[in-house]
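User: Run a structure prediction on this.
Assistant: Running it now.
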Amino acid sequence: MTGAIAIVDYGSGNLRSAAKAFERVVEEQGLDLTVMVTSDPALVARADRIVLPGVGAFADCKAGLGRLPGMIETLTEQVLVKAKPFFGICVGMQLLATTGREHGEHAGLGWIEGEVVPLAVELLGLKVPHMGWNQLEADRADHPLLAALPPEAHAYFVHSYRFVCAEPSHRLAHVDYGGPITAMIGRDNIVGTQFHPEKSQATGLAVIANFLRWKP
């Protein structure tokens, strides 16, 4: 397998940790892939796989993406038209929604129909943000990104809002935090995780490896 992985730098994301995690998997799996962190739409267009990280508020992240001339248009063409494998992480996943309801109502990319809403678990005695390790529960165990995960796979979360899919089949995995909370979404060539794979040790590295070998 050869090619390039573009991790999009739009001023919001744990880019160094994400890049190092992808580089580690490339090395350990012996893959002929180049990992690049870039804010240049031309480089994103030439990449074979695209990763969109994200940390912070929904509206701020969407605005940051929009401030890069041509980036949203390039992502749309490369992912929706050319069907390149795409991986959204944390707010990078949430931006795939139709609408984000964090401090108002904000339009997302609309690639996976749904909305991002507050966790609203305080009355259950649970803390917000949801921070720490939780066990993943597969909703679609046959999806390639969930293949060969460690037994009782746990992942690391830091978030105050959750993705509610309009189409239930688009939720690939969830965790229990006062009820089912979306942990992974996907359709066609698009996947996203609410958890941070770069912070999720063996589970996160396995998900990244699955993404890099995925042929949707």
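The mean pLDDT is 96.
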